[in-house]
Sequence to fold (276 residues):
Amino acid sequence: MRIAIIQLGYAEGADESVDARAQRVADLVRSAGAGHDLVLLPELWSAGGFASSEWEERSQDLSVLDQGELPPALVPVAEATREIGAVVHTGSVVERTAGPGEEGRHLWNTSVVLDPQGRPCATYRKIHRFGFGGGEPKLMEAGGEIVVTDLPAPADGLRVGLSTCYDLRFPELYRLQLDRGAQVFVIPSAWPMARVEHWRLLLRARAVEDQCFVVACNTAGTHAGVEMGGHSAVVDPGGTVLAEAGAGEETLSVEIEDDAVARTREGFPVLADRRL
Fold:
């Protein structure tokens, strides 16, 4: 499976509308994603990971997915997806719902995966909200569904678990994904530079403890005064970093072997010794 990771960057104070950024992202999908099976974008690229004051204005109505349509931020990305014929994980957007969730909020941090025809084939609402009472916990509902899915061709062959950014700190989520057959953890993020070493460590930890590939796309640039960490990466089931980006806007192109998970688990069958 050939994977392209687009580590998008944008500058503090840049006057870039959702439409303009979506078009720029679509152009990157066309140029960097061509010839790949799976393309991954970062978390909340259309709204800004830490730009919570803009989330409501930049939110997207995903109820249109039920009618076979896409929200404005994803329309150009879907067009590019059809052109390159890949599966595109669109990172995540701020989803806006008409009715409130259990905590009375109308916003969610939601990922949408598009098939090669530009149609949604999987969605995931972020379970663990970052902010310690502010930011996401204050403004967003928490997702409650663990999502493990078989992606369509050409990204088929390995079963994929979906999560987002802060989820990475909660290993029990990945154990549950493992028990549902996950072989690859795909993680879009908006992780800050201040804790980038945690990011790098935890990516390898999730790979090693679950003997899964980890495919993680972070953001570059600055969100609401917060410097983003970059360092998107692909880690193999043995914990080896196959590729890692720097701090700026960058694209990674990585090929992973479909049989690597099975070989790792057979050669070092640690998972068979689980007792709890």
Helices lie at 18-33, 75-84, 136-139, 171-179, 196-210, 260-267.
